[in-house]
Please model this.
Amino acid sequence: MIDIKVKLENAEVRGVEEKTSQKGNNYLIINVDDERGKRSELLDYNLERKDYYKRGTYGDFLLHIEVGKYPKVTIEDFIVKK
Model:
């Protein structure tokens, strides 16, 4: 199993969607574009950060990546660029 933390710098938020799991837990799916223009979906369990994820916002993401049977990328922190 791979378990690492990385920093995704200067990524642009392209959208956010709140979802509910089958177990009834709420979470956020954030669409981001990196500096290459490559689109990715990130998972955030902290619903309090939803207001930071406005389309066109740039910032740095601290990500937790787990690769086992299924890969999972979750957001640990988001720092908005001013």
The first strand starts at residue 2 and ends at 20. The CA atoms of residues 1 and 69 lie 8 Å apart.
